[in-house]
Amino acid sequence: MLKRARPLPVVAIAALGLALPSAASGGGYRVAQCDGALNPTPGQAAQERASDAYTLTAACAGGTGLQVESLLQTPAGSYGRWIWRAPSGSVFTRIRADATLIDGSGEQARLTAVRPGGQVETFGGPAGEFAPYSILGEFTEFRSALACTGPAACAVSAGPRAAVRNVALDLDDRSPPSPSFTGGSLFASDAVRGDQTAALRAADEGGGVRRLELRVNGELVRDDVRDCQLSAGVATALQPCAPEALATATLATSAPPFATGANQVRVCASDLAVNGNPNGACASADVFVDDLCPTSSIAAGSRLSARFAGDGRRVTVRSDRRVAVEGVLTSDSGDGIRGARVCALTRVLAPGEPYRVADVAKTRGDGTYRLRLPAGASREVFVDRALEGAVLMRAGLRTKAKVRPSFQIKSGGNSRTRGGGRIRFRGKLPGPGCDGRIVKVQAKVGKRHWQVFRGIRTSDECVYRTGFKLSSTSRRTRYQFRVRIPEQRDYPYAAGSSPVRGVVVAPD
After folding, report:
1. Are 150 and 106 in contact (CB under 8 A)?
2. Same domain, 169 and 34
3. 395 and 413 in one domain?
4. So what's the pLDDT on residue 473?
5. Average pLDDT over residues 229-243
Protein backbone atom coordinates (compact mmCIF):
# COMPACT_ATOMS: atom_id res chain seq x y z
CA MET A 1 0.00 0.00 0.00
CA LEU A 2 0.99 3.63 -0.36
CA LYS A 3 3.59 5.02 1.98
CA ARG A 4 1.83 8.10 3.31
CA ALA A 5 3.34 11.40 4.39
CA ARG A 6 5.88 10.82 7.11
CA PRO A 7 7.27 12.88 9.99
CA LEU A 8 10.31 14.95 9.12
CA PRO A 9 13.38 12.66 9.33
CA VAL A 10 15.73 15.15 10.93
CA VAL A 11 18.89 14.38 12.83
CA ALA A 12 20.64 17.14 14.80
CA ILE A 13 24.41 16.95 14.69
CA ALA A 14 27.37 19.20 15.34
CA ALA A 15 28.03 21.40 12.35
CA LEU A 16 30.23 19.84 9.66
CA GLY A 17 32.38 21.32 6.93
CA LEU A 18 33.73 24.83 6.69
CA ALA A 19 30.47 26.70 7.08
CA LEU A 20 30.09 26.24 10.81
CA PRO A 21 32.64 25.17 13.42
CA SER A 22 32.22 22.53 16.07
CA ALA A 23 30.04 23.37 19.05
CA ALA A 24 32.98 22.61 21.34
CA SER A 25 34.85 25.74 20.20
CA GLY A 26 32.49 28.17 21.96
CA GLY A 27 31.46 31.62 20.80
CA GLY A 28 32.77 34.74 22.55
CA TYR A 29 31.62 38.36 22.55
CA ARG A 30 31.88 41.46 24.75
CA VAL A 31 28.85 43.33 26.09
CA ALA A 32 28.93 47.06 26.86
CA GLN A 33 26.53 48.27 29.56
CA CYS A 34 26.09 51.81 30.84
CA ASP A 35 28.92 52.91 28.55
CA GLY A 36 28.73 56.54 27.50
CA ALA A 37 30.31 55.88 24.10
CA LEU A 38 28.88 52.47 23.07
CA ASN A 39 25.71 52.04 25.10
CA PRO A 40 24.58 55.02 27.19
CA THR A 41 21.68 53.05 28.70
CA PRO A 42 21.35 50.70 31.68
CA GLY A 43 21.16 47.82 29.19
CA GLN A 44 20.05 44.57 30.81
CA ALA A 45 20.92 45.60 34.36
CA ALA A 46 18.13 44.56 36.71
CA GLN A 47 17.16 46.35 39.92
CA GLU A 48 16.89 44.41 43.17
CA ARG A 49 16.20 45.77 46.64
CA ALA A 50 15.39 44.18 49.96
CA SER A 51 14.12 47.48 51.38
CA ASP A 52 12.38 50.51 49.91
CA ALA A 53 14.89 52.61 51.81
CA TYR A 54 17.33 52.06 48.93
CA THR A 55 17.15 54.34 45.91
CA LEU A 56 18.38 53.07 42.53
CA THR A 57 18.93 55.61 39.77
CA ALA A 58 20.36 55.43 36.25
CA ALA A 59 22.35 58.23 34.65
CA CYS A 60 24.60 56.44 32.15
CA ALA A 61 24.48 59.22 29.57
CA GLY A 62 25.31 61.80 32.24
CA GLY A 63 28.34 59.87 33.45
CA THR A 64 27.27 59.14 37.03
CA GLY A 65 26.25 55.60 36.06
CA LEU A 66 23.99 53.19 37.87
CA GLN A 67 23.74 54.28 41.51
CA VAL A 68 22.51 52.77 44.76
CA GLU A 69 21.96 55.05 47.80
CA SER A 70 20.23 54.76 51.18
CA LEU A 71 18.65 58.04 52.28
CA LEU A 72 16.55 56.40 54.96
CA GLN A 73 17.23 54.01 57.81
CA THR A 74 17.76 50.50 56.36
CA PRO A 75 17.07 47.18 58.14
CA ALA A 76 19.96 44.91 59.04
CA GLY A 77 20.77 42.49 56.21
CA SER A 78 18.92 44.54 53.59
CA TYR A 79 20.44 45.70 50.33
CA GLY A 80 19.91 47.45 47.02
CA ARG A 81 21.80 46.43 43.91
CA TRP A 82 22.16 46.45 40.16
CA ILE A 83 22.68 42.95 38.78
CA TRP A 84 23.61 41.39 35.44
CA ARG A 85 22.93 37.70 34.71
CA ALA A 86 24.65 35.73 31.98
CA PRO A 87 22.19 34.18 29.50
CA SER A 88 21.45 30.49 29.97
CA GLY A 89 24.19 28.38 28.41
CA SER A 90 26.88 31.06 28.80
CA VAL A 91 29.19 32.49 31.49
CA PHE A 92 31.02 35.73 32.12
CA THR A 93 34.75 35.12 31.77
CA ARG A 94 35.88 38.67 32.51
CA ILE A 95 34.04 41.45 34.29
CA ARG A 96 35.32 45.02 34.16
CA ALA A 97 33.69 48.22 35.40
CA ASP A 98 34.46 51.69 36.68
CA ALA A 99 32.97 52.10 40.14
CA THR A 100 32.61 54.52 43.06
CA LEU A 101 32.18 52.56 46.32
CA ILE A 102 31.64 54.53 49.55
CA ASP A 103 30.92 52.87 52.92
CA GLY A 104 29.35 54.50 55.98
CA SER A 105 26.82 54.15 58.83
CA GLY A 106 27.01 50.36 58.63
CA GLU A 107 26.47 50.33 54.86
CA GLN A 108 29.04 48.60 52.60
CA ALA A 109 29.44 49.25 48.86
CA ARG A 110 30.84 46.29 46.98
CA LEU A 111 31.26 44.71 43.54
CA THR A 112 30.70 40.96 43.57
CA ALA A 113 30.62 38.10 41.06
CA VAL A 114 28.79 34.79 41.49
CA ARG A 115 30.29 31.53 40.27
CA PRO A 116 28.17 28.77 38.64
CA GLY A 117 28.16 26.88 41.96
CA GLY A 118 26.79 29.87 43.85
CA GLN A 119 30.02 31.07 45.53
CA VAL A 120 30.20 34.86 45.78
CA GLU A 121 33.50 36.67 45.21
CA THR A 122 34.12 40.32 46.09
CA PHE A 123 36.49 42.25 43.86
CA GLY A 124 35.68 45.92 44.50
CA GLY A 125 36.26 47.79 47.75
CA PRO A 126 35.84 51.37 49.04
CA ALA A 127 36.89 54.14 46.69
CA GLY A 128 35.70 57.72 46.72
CA GLU A 129 36.14 58.33 42.98
CA PHE A 130 35.44 56.20 39.94
CA ALA A 131 38.17 53.62 39.57
CA PRO A 132 38.55 50.55 37.34
CA TYR A 133 37.92 47.07 38.74
CA SER A 134 38.07 43.70 37.02
CA ILE A 135 37.94 39.97 37.73
CA LEU A 136 38.68 36.88 35.65
CA GLY A 137 37.05 33.47 35.98
CA GLU A 138 33.69 31.92 35.25
CA PHE A 139 30.65 33.69 36.63
CA THR A 140 26.91 33.69 36.15
CA GLU A 141 26.18 37.08 37.80
CA PHE A 142 27.75 40.50 38.34
CA ARG A 143 26.43 42.74 41.13
CA SER A 144 26.99 46.34 42.20
CA ALA A 145 25.42 46.63 45.66
CA LEU A 146 25.01 48.70 48.79
CA ALA A 147 24.10 46.58 51.83
CA CYS A 148 23.41 47.08 55.53
CA THR A 149 25.78 44.47 56.96
CA GLY A 150 25.74 45.33 60.68
CA PRO A 151 23.83 43.50 63.42
CA ALA A 152 21.38 46.41 63.72
CA ALA A 153 19.63 48.77 61.36
CA CYS A 154 21.83 51.27 59.53
CA ALA A 155 21.26 54.93 60.35
CA VAL A 156 20.22 57.62 57.91
CA SER A 157 23.23 58.91 56.01
CA ALA A 158 23.84 60.77 52.76
CA GLY A 159 27.32 59.38 52.32
CA PRO A 160 27.18 55.65 51.45
CA ARG A 161 26.87 54.98 47.78
CA ALA A 162 27.64 52.35 45.11
CA ALA A 163 27.86 53.56 41.52
CA VAL A 164 29.07 51.71 38.41
CA ARG A 165 29.57 52.67 34.77
CA ASN A 166 31.46 51.56 31.65
CA VAL A 167 30.64 47.94 32.35
CA ALA A 168 32.34 45.47 29.99
CA LEU A 169 31.26 41.82 30.23
CA ASP A 170 33.09 39.14 28.24
CA LEU A 171 30.80 36.18 27.61
CA ASP A 172 31.65 32.66 26.57
CA ASP A 173 28.61 31.16 24.87
CA ARG A 174 28.69 27.37 25.32
CA SER A 175 25.20 26.60 24.09
CA PRO A 176 24.91 25.60 20.40
CA PRO A 177 21.78 26.55 18.48
CA SER A 178 19.02 24.01 17.80
CA PRO A 179 18.08 24.11 14.09
CA SER A 180 15.21 22.10 12.63
CA PHE A 181 12.80 21.75 9.74
CA THR A 182 9.29 22.60 10.90
CA GLY A 183 7.33 21.74 7.78
CA GLY A 184 6.85 22.57 4.13
CA SER A 185 5.78 20.68 1.03
CA LEU A 186 9.34 19.43 0.49
CA PHE A 187 8.80 16.96 3.32
CA ALA A 188 5.10 16.20 2.84
CA SER A 189 5.44 12.97 0.84
CA ASP A 190 7.87 10.19 0.04
CA ALA A 191 8.92 11.80 -3.25
CA VAL A 192 8.57 15.29 -4.72
CA ARG A 193 9.18 17.26 -7.91
CA GLY A 194 8.85 20.87 -9.05
CA ASP A 195 8.87 23.88 -6.71
CA GLN A 196 8.65 22.99 -3.03
CA THR A 197 8.82 24.88 0.26
CA ALA A 198 10.84 24.23 3.39
CA ALA A 199 10.13 25.91 6.74
CA LEU A 200 13.23 26.44 8.90
CA ARG A 201 13.67 27.25 12.56
CA ALA A 202 16.62 27.77 14.86
CA ALA A 203 16.65 28.58 18.58
CA ASP A 204 19.56 29.59 20.81
CA GLU A 205 19.53 30.36 24.52
CA GLY A 206 22.99 31.95 24.64
CA GLY A 207 23.84 34.88 22.41
CA GLY A 208 20.93 34.18 20.04
CA VAL A 209 20.81 33.11 16.39
CA ARG A 210 23.21 35.04 14.19
CA ARG A 211 23.14 32.98 11.00
CA LEU A 212 20.80 30.51 9.32
CA GLU A 213 21.93 28.46 6.31
CA LEU A 214 20.20 26.03 4.00
CA ARG A 215 22.25 23.55 1.97
CA VAL A 216 21.24 20.97 -0.61
CA ASN A 217 23.72 18.16 -1.25
CA GLY A 218 26.39 20.28 0.41
CA GLU A 219 25.78 23.39 -1.72
CA LEU A 220 24.66 26.61 -0.06
CA VAL A 221 21.25 27.73 -1.38
CA ARG A 222 20.31 30.26 1.29
CA ASP A 223 22.46 32.29 3.69
CA ASP A 224 20.54 34.44 6.16
CA VAL A 225 22.67 36.61 8.46
CA ARG A 226 20.47 38.18 11.15
CA ASP A 227 20.75 41.68 12.59
CA CYS A 228 22.05 41.77 16.15
CA GLN A 229 22.51 44.53 18.73
CA LEU A 230 26.12 45.50 18.03
CA SER A 231 28.06 48.74 18.18
CA ALA A 232 31.61 48.90 16.83
CA GLY A 233 31.89 45.12 17.17
CA VAL A 234 30.66 45.12 20.78
CA ALA A 235 27.28 43.77 21.83
CA THR A 236 24.93 46.18 23.58
CA ALA A 237 22.71 43.42 25.04
CA LEU A 238 23.47 40.28 27.02
CA GLN A 239 21.65 38.29 24.32
CA PRO A 240 22.38 40.48 21.31
CA CYS A 241 20.70 38.28 18.69
CA ALA A 242 17.12 37.05 18.68
CA PRO A 243 16.63 33.74 20.53
CA GLU A 244 14.67 32.34 17.59
CA ALA A 245 14.97 32.61 13.82
CA LEU A 246 12.28 31.48 11.36
CA ALA A 247 12.45 31.32 7.58
CA THR A 248 10.68 29.74 4.62
CA ALA A 249 12.54 28.84 1.44
CA THR A 250 11.10 27.96 -1.96
CA LEU A 251 13.27 25.44 -3.78
CA ALA A 252 13.21 24.25 -7.39
CA THR A 253 13.84 20.51 -7.16
CA SER A 254 14.07 20.32 -10.95
CA ALA A 255 17.34 22.30 -10.95
CA PRO A 256 20.78 21.76 -9.41
CA PRO A 257 21.89 21.18 -6.75
CA PHE A 258 18.90 18.82 -6.61
CA ALA A 259 19.11 15.64 -8.66
CA THR A 260 16.74 12.77 -9.28
CA GLY A 261 17.11 10.37 -6.38
CA ALA A 262 17.96 10.88 -2.74
CA ASN A 263 19.05 14.41 -1.80
CA GLN A 264 20.33 15.65 1.54
CA VAL A 265 18.76 18.90 2.70
CA ARG A 266 20.45 20.52 5.68
CA VAL A 267 19.66 23.54 7.84
CA CYS A 268 22.56 24.95 9.84
CA ALA A 269 22.56 27.68 12.47
CA SER A 270 25.28 29.54 14.31
CA ASP A 271 25.27 32.02 17.17
CA LEU A 272 27.22 35.23 17.67
CA ALA A 273 30.98 35.19 18.03
CA VAL A 274 32.99 38.39 17.84
CA ASN A 275 35.96 36.68 19.49
CA GLY A 276 36.77 33.14 18.37
CA ASN A 277 34.41 30.85 16.51
CA PRO A 278 30.64 30.65 16.85
CA ASN A 279 28.78 27.60 18.04
CA GLY A 280 27.00 25.80 15.24
CA ALA A 281 24.74 22.83 14.66
CA CYS A 282 22.86 21.29 11.76
CA ALA A 283 19.79 19.20 11.15
CA SER A 284 19.36 17.19 7.97
CA ALA A 285 16.64 15.36 6.09
CA ASP A 286 16.71 13.09 3.05
CA VAL A 287 14.37 14.07 0.22
CA PHE A 288 13.70 11.87 -2.80
CA VAL A 289 13.19 13.76 -6.05
CA ASP A 290 11.76 12.29 -9.25
CA ASP A 291 12.24 14.77 -12.05
CA LEU A 292 12.50 12.15 -14.82
CA CYS A 293 9.23 10.24 -14.98
CA PRO A 294 6.65 11.82 -17.32
CA THR A 295 3.66 13.37 -15.62
CA SER A 296 0.27 11.71 -15.59
CA SER A 297 -2.87 13.55 -16.69
CA ILE A 298 -4.90 11.43 -14.27
CA ALA A 299 -4.59 12.80 -10.74
CA ALA A 300 -6.91 10.26 -9.13
CA GLY A 301 -5.51 7.37 -7.15
CA SER A 302 -3.94 7.33 -3.71
CA ARG A 303 -2.75 3.72 -3.34
CA LEU A 304 -0.05 2.24 -5.52
CA SER A 305 1.15 -1.35 -5.25
CA ALA A 306 4.12 -2.91 -7.05
CA ARG A 307 5.80 -6.32 -7.16
CA PHE A 308 7.82 -8.44 -9.52
CA ALA A 309 5.66 -10.81 -11.47
CA GLY A 310 5.30 -13.85 -9.24
CA ASP A 311 8.26 -13.00 -7.00
CA GLY A 312 7.26 -10.24 -4.61
CA ARG A 313 9.48 -7.23 -3.92
CA ARG A 314 12.86 -8.83 -4.70
CA VAL A 315 13.86 -11.04 -7.56
CA THR A 316 17.02 -12.84 -8.67
CA VAL A 317 17.42 -13.15 -12.41
CA ARG A 318 20.15 -13.88 -14.92
CA SER A 319 21.67 -10.67 -16.26
CA ASP A 320 20.66 -11.45 -19.85
CA ARG A 321 16.99 -11.84 -18.92
CA ARG A 322 14.30 -9.18 -18.56
CA VAL A 323 11.90 -8.94 -15.65
CA ALA A 324 8.40 -7.47 -15.27
CA VAL A 325 6.86 -5.34 -12.52
CA GLU A 326 3.13 -5.54 -11.89
CA GLY A 327 0.78 -3.63 -9.63
CA VAL A 328 -2.41 -1.66 -9.29
CA LEU A 329 -3.39 1.98 -8.73
CA THR A 330 -6.56 2.44 -6.69
CA SER A 331 -8.51 5.05 -4.76
CA ASP A 332 -8.79 5.00 -0.97
CA SER A 333 -11.93 2.90 -1.36
CA GLY A 334 -10.12 0.33 -3.51
CA ASP A 335 -11.53 1.28 -6.93
CA GLY A 336 -9.09 0.83 -9.81
CA ILE A 337 -7.94 3.99 -11.62
CA ARG A 338 -7.93 3.76 -15.43
CA GLY A 339 -5.57 5.58 -17.81
CA ALA A 340 -3.03 6.86 -15.28
CA ARG A 341 0.58 6.90 -16.41
CA VAL A 342 2.99 4.94 -14.23
CA CYS A 343 6.74 4.83 -14.57
CA ALA A 344 9.59 2.53 -13.58
CA LEU A 345 12.47 4.62 -12.29
CA THR A 346 15.61 2.53 -11.79
CA ARG A 347 19.21 2.87 -10.70
CA VAL A 348 22.01 0.35 -11.17
CA LEU A 349 23.48 -0.61 -7.78
CA ALA A 350 26.96 0.78 -8.38
CA PRO A 351 28.65 3.99 -7.20
CA GLY A 352 27.83 7.06 -9.30
CA GLU A 353 25.17 5.41 -11.45
CA PRO A 354 22.29 7.75 -12.38
CA TYR A 355 18.58 7.12 -12.26
CA ARG A 356 16.88 6.21 -15.53
CA VAL A 357 13.34 5.70 -16.76
CA ALA A 358 13.17 2.02 -17.60
CA ASP A 359 9.55 1.84 -18.83
CA VAL A 360 6.27 3.76 -18.85
CA ALA A 361 2.79 2.25 -19.00
CA LYS A 362 -0.86 3.21 -18.50
CA THR A 363 -3.16 1.53 -16.05
CA ARG A 364 -5.90 -0.71 -17.39
CA GLY A 365 -9.58 -0.40 -16.57
CA ASP A 366 -9.15 -2.15 -13.23
CA GLY A 367 -6.11 -0.03 -12.34
CA THR A 368 -3.55 -2.76 -13.03
CA TYR A 369 -0.37 -2.15 -14.99
CA ARG A 370 2.72 -4.00 -16.21
CA LEU A 371 6.21 -2.55 -16.67
CA ARG A 372 9.13 -4.31 -18.34
CA LEU A 373 12.66 -3.76 -17.07
CA PRO A 374 15.63 -4.22 -19.38
CA ALA A 375 18.18 -6.97 -18.91
CA GLY A 376 21.36 -5.98 -17.16
CA ALA A 377 22.83 -5.23 -13.76
CA SER A 378 21.26 -5.39 -10.30
CA ARG A 379 18.95 -2.43 -9.74
CA GLU A 380 16.81 -0.65 -7.24
CA VAL A 381 13.37 0.04 -8.68
CA PHE A 382 10.80 2.72 -7.90
CA VAL A 383 7.33 2.81 -9.42
CA ASP A 384 5.90 6.34 -9.66
CA ARG A 385 2.73 8.10 -10.63
CA ALA A 386 4.01 11.66 -11.13
CA LEU A 387 1.93 14.85 -11.17
CA GLU A 388 3.14 18.41 -11.62
CA GLY A 389 4.32 18.90 -8.03
CA ALA A 390 3.85 15.58 -6.31
CA VAL A 391 4.84 11.96 -6.75
CA LEU A 392 3.00 8.86 -5.59
CA MET A 393 5.77 6.33 -5.13
CA ARG A 394 6.15 2.66 -4.41
CA ALA A 395 9.72 1.99 -3.34
CA GLY A 396 11.69 -0.95 -2.06
CA LEU A 397 11.86 -3.16 -5.14
CA ARG A 398 15.23 -4.60 -6.05
CA THR A 399 16.61 -6.92 -8.71
CA LYS A 400 19.63 -9.14 -8.14
CA ALA A 401 21.27 -9.98 -11.45
CA LYS A 402 23.51 -13.05 -11.75
CA VAL A 403 26.22 -12.09 -14.20
CA ARG A 404 26.14 -13.88 -17.57
CA PRO A 405 29.37 -13.21 -19.49
CA SER A 406 29.91 -14.19 -23.10
CA PHE A 407 32.31 -17.11 -23.70
CA GLN A 408 33.90 -18.39 -26.88
CA ILE A 409 36.36 -21.17 -27.70
CA LYS A 410 38.32 -20.46 -30.87
CA SER A 411 35.62 -19.10 -33.18
CA GLY A 412 32.85 -19.88 -30.71
CA GLY A 413 30.74 -22.96 -30.14
CA ASN A 414 31.85 -26.61 -29.88
CA SER A 415 35.27 -27.47 -31.25
CA ARG A 416 37.27 -30.53 -32.28
CA THR A 417 41.00 -30.83 -31.93
CA ARG A 418 43.71 -33.39 -31.41
CA GLY A 419 45.67 -34.06 -28.27
CA GLY A 420 48.55 -31.68 -27.82
CA GLY A 421 46.64 -28.90 -29.57
CA ARG A 422 46.03 -25.44 -28.11
CA ILE A 423 42.65 -23.82 -27.67
CA ARG A 424 41.90 -20.18 -26.92
CA PHE A 425 39.19 -18.66 -24.74
CA ARG A 426 37.68 -15.25 -25.18
CA GLY A 427 34.68 -13.37 -23.75
CA LYS A 428 33.34 -10.17 -22.32
CA LEU A 429 31.63 -9.11 -19.08
CA PRO A 430 28.58 -6.86 -19.03
CA GLY A 431 28.96 -3.36 -17.59
CA PRO A 432 29.12 -1.11 -15.77
CA GLY A 433 32.31 -1.46 -13.76
CA CYS A 434 33.41 -4.55 -15.67
CA ASP A 435 37.07 -3.64 -16.24
CA GLY A 436 39.73 -5.30 -14.10
CA ARG A 437 37.34 -7.98 -12.83
CA ILE A 438 38.34 -11.49 -11.80
CA VAL A 439 37.47 -14.28 -14.23
CA LYS A 440 37.93 -17.91 -13.23
CA VAL A 441 38.29 -20.36 -16.12
CA GLN A 442 36.95 -23.80 -15.19
CA ALA A 443 37.06 -27.24 -16.79
CA LYS A 444 35.16 -30.47 -16.23
CA VAL A 445 35.96 -33.88 -17.57
CA GLY A 446 33.13 -36.39 -17.53
CA LYS A 447 31.03 -36.08 -14.39
CA ARG A 448 33.71 -34.62 -12.17
CA HIS A 449 33.24 -31.27 -10.41
CA TRP A 450 34.22 -28.04 -12.07
CA GLN A 451 37.85 -27.23 -11.45
CA VAL A 452 39.47 -23.80 -11.76
CA PHE A 453 42.62 -24.05 -13.81
CA ARG A 454 43.27 -20.38 -14.53
CA GLY A 455 42.41 -17.01 -12.99
CA ILE A 456 42.65 -13.87 -15.10
CA ARG A 457 41.28 -10.32 -15.16
CA THR A 458 39.35 -8.37 -17.76
CA SER A 459 40.95 -5.59 -19.78
CA ASP A 460 39.91 -1.92 -19.81
CA GLU A 461 37.39 -2.94 -22.49
CA CYS A 462 35.97 -5.64 -20.13
CA VAL A 463 37.34 -8.39 -22.42
CA TYR A 464 39.19 -11.46 -21.15
CA ARG A 465 41.48 -13.79 -23.15
CA THR A 466 43.54 -16.83 -22.31
CA GLY A 467 44.67 -20.14 -23.80
CA PHE A 468 45.08 -23.78 -22.82
CA LYS A 469 47.18 -26.62 -24.24
CA LEU A 470 45.38 -29.97 -24.31
CA SER A 471 47.23 -33.09 -23.22
CA SER A 472 47.81 -35.97 -25.63
CA THR A 473 45.28 -38.77 -25.33
CA SER A 474 44.93 -42.33 -26.56
CA ARG A 475 41.15 -42.18 -26.71
CA ARG A 476 38.45 -39.77 -27.68
CA THR A 477 37.77 -37.39 -24.75
CA ARG A 478 35.21 -34.63 -24.28
CA TYR A 479 36.12 -31.59 -22.18
CA GLN A 480 33.69 -28.97 -20.93
CA PHE A 481 34.72 -25.39 -20.18
CA ARG A 482 33.09 -22.30 -18.70
CA VAL A 483 34.09 -19.11 -16.88
CA ARG A 484 32.87 -18.32 -13.41
CA ILE A 485 32.61 -14.70 -12.20
CA PRO A 486 32.58 -14.33 -8.41
CA GLU A 487 30.72 -11.50 -6.68
CA GLN A 488 33.02 -8.48 -6.46
CA ARG A 489 32.95 -5.15 -4.71
CA ASP A 490 31.26 -2.31 -6.64
CA TYR A 491 30.41 -4.67 -9.48
CA PRO A 492 26.59 -4.67 -9.61
CA TYR A 493 26.14 -8.37 -10.25
CA ALA A 494 25.82 -11.51 -8.20
CA ALA A 495 28.14 -14.41 -8.96
CA GLY A 496 27.36 -16.16 -12.22
CA SER A 497 28.70 -18.36 -15.00
CA SER A 498 29.01 -18.28 -18.76
CA PRO A 499 27.39 -20.82 -21.10
CA VAL A 500 29.21 -24.16 -21.15
CA ARG A 501 31.33 -24.89 -24.21
CA GLY A 502 32.58 -28.36 -25.15
CA VAL A 503 35.75 -29.54 -26.87
CA VAL A 504 36.21 -33.08 -28.25
CA VAL A 505 39.84 -34.24 -28.24
CA ALA A 506 40.68 -37.01 -30.71
CA PRO A 507 43.57 -39.49 -30.16
CA ASP A 508 46.92 -38.48 -31.65
Report:
1. yes
2. yes
3. no
4. 64
5. 95
Q: Single out the residue in 256, 289, 322 at which a domain terminates.
A: 289
Cα–Cα dist 443/465, whole Å:
16
Helix (H) or strand (E) holding 342: strand 341-348
Q: How confident is the model at residue 29 (pLDDT cuts 50, 70, 90)?
A: very high
Amino acid (one-letter) located at 131: A
pTM of the complete model beyond 0.85: no
Q: What is the dihedral of CA 40, 46, 49, 55, to 10 degrees?
A: 20
How far apart are the two ends of the chain, measured CA to CA in Å? Answer: 68
Spatial contact of 96 and 139, defined as CB atoms under 8 Å apart: no
Counting beta carbons within 10 angstroms of the beta carbon of residue 109, is it exposed (0 to 12), middle (13 to 18) or buried (19 or more)? buried
Report d(CA 161, CA 100) in Å as an integer: 7
If you write DSSP's letter for every residue of 235-292 in order, what string do you get? ESSSS-S-SEEEEEEEEETTSTT--SEEEEEEEEEEE--SEE---EEEEEEEEEE--S
Residue 339 lies in a domain: yes
pLDDT in tens, 268-322: 999 999 988 899 999 999 999 999 999 999 999 999 999 998 878 999 999 999 9
Q: Comparing C-alpha atoms, which of 71, 76, 78, 91 is closest to residue 48?
A: 78
CATH classification at residue 343:
2.60.40.10
Q: Are residues 91 and 199 in the same domain?
A: no
C-alpha distances (whole Å) from 11 to each of 58, 285, 353 are: 47, 7, 27
- Length of the chain in terms of residues written: 508
DSSP for 277-340, written as a single string:
---EEEEEEEEEE--SSPBPS-----EE--EETTTBTEEEEETTS-EEEEEEEE-TT--B--S-
452/63 Cα distance (integer angstroms): 96
Residues 286-295 pLDDT 10s: 999 999 999 9
Contact partners, residue 215, CB within 8 Å, separation at least 6? 19, 221, 265, 266, 267, 268
Domain, as residue range, for 363:
303-402
